[in-house]
């Protein structure tokens, strides 16, 4: 499988990878515009815009958008993250031109009918309400806010209900004009796809557009605070964060191997010690997430009000112990999990198209799978232990707690235990 890349004079990039043996393809547009590109008074608008893209264009009604893709057996969807918004479809090989035409249409030609804005506003407000009623979902937004307070990176993607309630057509049009230029877009496709045909069609659809230039975003400044929300729930939901590496940081893969060994599966340290040996929770895990200029390592668990103190203490102790006695077998297992997860995920054309777009946005190129696995293999025991030691020695954490939190230690107590 060979990656093909074409760049248009206006900055649009088209990247694809043909996957032999597949009868379908995934094609989409990734826009360099997410939650952290919003001004404070725009918080939530990138996500609102994603919803509105499906509500009608100059050429198609909302129903026609869905029907044209589903009439050929395909599906279409979108998502908003803190750094990107993606619109994509998966169809059979012969319908790739249709898919790109529809996806381009919803990105370039939304009409923002005021009546549809009001309908979708209610849908998003319901989505916000649902998130608030889902403790193991909202806890991560609160941790993000505690880690990066009063910053674009710390604000929620959905936005606050009071802000979403006020967005108007002009607000959506302004955000599009600022960020939705061809130089801020990547068209990515994988599967049964013809790169030359894709590039020609992309030039026809986007070649006449002028670039908008890249707008600066507020840098992420880790501050590590605490957010504690009391509510009568069955469990205390606990999320703790540490500053992690950015995408291009030399410690990126070391961080990922470390968090996989610490809490990435049933054989991981946290799962074995906290759940299997002590029975303090049903679910506990660690993960590493990165952004353009920073990142965060997150540990999450849910437990009873009476046992939250024990769970917090045991988690801190395992973090400290990992810096001292992480074994070669644990590191090897974590590397194997990461490589298998990478390769298994890329059996899907949708996952592969997303990988193409994200890597091109981050590095300006798409590393080969051989290069990616080699970087994972380069992470050895010494690197993992050194990384774990640096993490613990800083003791600079962020904390979010939700539920009956009366017996939970505060952030200062957790930091003291880490430093002891």
Could you please describe the fold and organization of this structure?
This protein has helices at 45-52, 62-70, 96-108, 114-132, 135-147, 161-164, 169-179, 195-206, 252-263, 269-277, 308-325, 328-345, 349-363, 369-377, 381-394, 411-419; strands spanning 3-7, 13-18, 24-31, 75-80, 85-92, 185-191, 226-230, 236-244, 284-290, 295-303, 397-403. α1 crosses α7 (169-179), α9 packs across α12 (328-345) and α11 (308-325) crosses α15 (381-394). The chain is built from 16 helices and 11 strands. A hairpin with a 4-residue loop joins β4 (75-80) and β5 (85-92). The protein is an alpha+beta fold. The termini are far apart. The longest helix is centred in the first third of the chain and has 19 residues, at 114-132. The model has no long low-confidence stretch (mean pLDDT 96). The strands form 2 sheets. Strands 1-2-6-3-5-4 form a 6-stranded mixed beta sheet, with helices on both faces.
Core attributes:
six-stranded mixed sheet, alpha+beta, 420 residues, 16 helices, globular
Question: What is the secondary structure topology, with strand pairs?
Answer:
Layout: E1 3-7, E2 13-18, E3 24-31, H1 45-52, H2 62-70, E4 75-80, E5 85-92, H3 96-108, H4 114-132, H5 135-147, H6 161-164, H7 169-179, E6 185-191, H8 195-206, E7 226-230, E8 236-244, H9 252-263, H10 269-277, E9 284-290, E10 295-303, H11 308-325, H12 328-345, H13 349-363, H14 369-377, H15 381-394, E11 397-403, H16 411-419
Parallel strand pairs: 2-6, 7-11
Antiparallel strand pairs: 1-2, 3-5, 3-6, 4-5, 8-10, 8-11, 9-10
Helix pairs in contact: 1-7, 3-8, 9-12, 9-15, 10-11, 11-15, 12-14
């Amino acid at each position: 499988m060979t990656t093909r890349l074409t760049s248009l004079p206006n900055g649009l990039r088209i990247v694809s990878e043909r996957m032999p043996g597949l009868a379908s393809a995934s094609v989409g547009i990734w826009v360099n515009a997410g939650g952290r590109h919003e001004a404070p008074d725009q918080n939530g608008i990138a996500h609102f815009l994603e919803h509105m893209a499906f509500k009608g264009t100059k050429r198609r009604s909302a129903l026609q958008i869905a029907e044209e893709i589903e009439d050929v057996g395909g599906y279409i969807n979108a998502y908003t993250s803190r750094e990107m918004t993606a619109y994509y479809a998966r169809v059979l090989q012969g319908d790739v031109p249709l898919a790109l035409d529809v996806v381009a249409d919803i990105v370039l030609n939304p009409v923002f009918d005021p009546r549809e804005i009001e309908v979708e506003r209610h849908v998003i407000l319901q989505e916000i309400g649902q998130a608030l009623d889902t403790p193991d979902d909202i806890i991560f937004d609160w941790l993000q806010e505690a880690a990066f307070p009063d910053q674009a990176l710390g604000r929620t993607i959905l936005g606050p209900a009071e802000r979403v309630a006020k967005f108007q057509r002009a607000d959506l049009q302004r955000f599009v004009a600022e960020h939705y230029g061809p130089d801020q877009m990547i068209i990515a496709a994988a599967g049964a796809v013809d790169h030359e045909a894709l590039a020609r069609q992309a030039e026809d659809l986007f070649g006449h557009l002028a670039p908008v230039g890249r707008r600066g975003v507020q840098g992420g400044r880790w501050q590590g605070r605490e957010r504690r929300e009391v509510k009568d729930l069955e469990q205390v939901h606990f999320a703790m964060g540490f500053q992690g590496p950015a995408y291009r940081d030399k410690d990126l893969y070391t961080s990922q191997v470390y968090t996989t060994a610490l809490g990435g599966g049933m054989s991981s340290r946290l799962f074995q010690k906290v759940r299997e040996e002590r029975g303090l929770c049903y679910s506990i895990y660690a993960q590493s997430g990165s952004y353009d200029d920073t990142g965060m390592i997150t540990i999450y668990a849910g437990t009873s009000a009476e046992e939250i103190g024990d769970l917090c203490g045991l988690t801190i102790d395992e973090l400290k112990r990992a810096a001292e006695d992480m074994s070669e077998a644990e590191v090897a297992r974590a590397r194997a999990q990461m490589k298998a997860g990478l390769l298994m995920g890329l059996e899907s054309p949708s996952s592969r198209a997303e990988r193409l777009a994200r890597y091109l946005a981050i590095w300006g190129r798409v590393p080969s799978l051989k290069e990616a696995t080699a970087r994972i293999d380069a992470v050895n025991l010494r690197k993992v232990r050194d990384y774990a030691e640096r993490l613990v020695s800083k003791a600079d954490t962020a904390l979010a707690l939700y539920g009956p939190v009366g017996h939970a230690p505060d952030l200062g107590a957790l930091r003291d235990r880490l430093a002891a």
